[in-house]
Amino acid sequence: MSSEQRARVDAILRQPGPEGPQSVEQIRAGFRALMAGMIVPHDRIRTTPTTLGDRPALRVEPAGDAGVVGVVGAGAGGASGTILYFHGGGWVFGSPETALGLTGNLVARTGLGAYSVDYRLAPEHPFPAAIEDTLSAYRALLDRGEDPSTIVFAGDSAGGGLAVTTCLAARDAGLPLPAALLALSPGVDATRSGESMDTKEGVDPIFTRAALAHTGALYLAGADPHQPLLSPAVLADLTGFPPMLIQVGANELLLDDSTRLAARARAAGVDVVLDVTADVPHVFQAFAGVLDEADEALDRAALFLRQRIGAGR
């Protein structure tokens, strides 16, 4: 672990952006530019545009005989199972391409194939459009005959929230649940009632309460945030959920989204691991290859996913 690495990442994220309010397109363009600088393991993966359900998706697979890297005990070659990945971006920006560093690293480390869903974004398509799309993608995997015990949900930020709410929606629809959930810095409390929303103000190099309120309002479009599909960390019944790994940085405004989600899962009898890394920002795993903590966290995530795939068969 390197304090110099952490300081470098913090400085990158604190670089001043354009002054004044930004349009949705400017926000989206800025995020694309930031994520274009992340390291993607292109030599370990191959990608193919496809569709899943009724939405575009990016298929990400291990490349040929590249094998599985970075996980102690992982064998070479591909593994049987599917990561259904939901990208981050506040439900307003982001895409499978901006999340490719994360998806690609999970694929390279596990040997599992992934589908990264290009769900509809707000404000053009506010709540619950994203959940409808991610649930449709899961139904498509089941309809083609994939065993739910070989499917895992994973996502970062808003996509980490979607991993949770898609599982809620699947359970409510009477569908079998996936083998596991991996949530990286999930956004799971639209009420913004966590103490870290105040205690981490200024410590968090990415978010302010005002910025989260702006994108949150675009997604809510007037909907009451006090409902399970918007604030599962404080309102959802997680009974029957599959094992969960929640990873979060200690420098996040959204830290308490993760801590309260973990506590709620534990109270519901769910097998849950809360993995908090000190002095790192929101979705720090995106800095794999730059930040030691990012690579170590992805190794832990990959081991968790490999252990859970097929465990319930």
Secondary structure: helix percent:
25-40%
Domain count, please report it. 1
Class from helix and strand fractions: alpha/beta
Kindly provide the name of the CATH class: Alpha Beta
CATH architecture: 3-Layer(aba) Sandwich
Q: C-alpha Rg, in Å?
A: 18 Å
Order of secondary-structure elements: HHEEEHEHEHEHHHEHEH
Q: How many helices in DSSP terms?
A: 10
CATH superfamily: Alpha/Beta hydrolase fold, catalytic domain
Q: How many β-strand stretches? A: 8
- Tertiary shape: globular
Index terms:
36% helix; eight-stranded mixed beta sheet; Rossmann fold; 10 helices; 313 residues; alpha/beta
Structure description:
This protein is of the alpha/beta class and 313 residues long. It has helices at residues 3-13, 24-35, 100-110, 129-143, 158-172, 196-199, 209-220, 232-235, 255-267, 292-308; strands at residues 45-52, 55-62, 82-86, 113-117, 151-156, 180-184, 244-249, 272-277. It has one domain: Rossmann fold (3-Layer(aba) Sandwich), CATH 3.40.50.1820. The model is unreliable at 69-78 (pLDDT under 50). It has an eight-stranded mixed sheet, with helices on both faces. The chain is built from ten helices and eight strands. Helix 3 (100-110) links the parallel strand 3 (82-86) and strand 4 (113-117). Helix 3 packs across helix 10 (292-308) and helix 4 (129-143) packs across helix 5 (158-172). The termini are far apart.
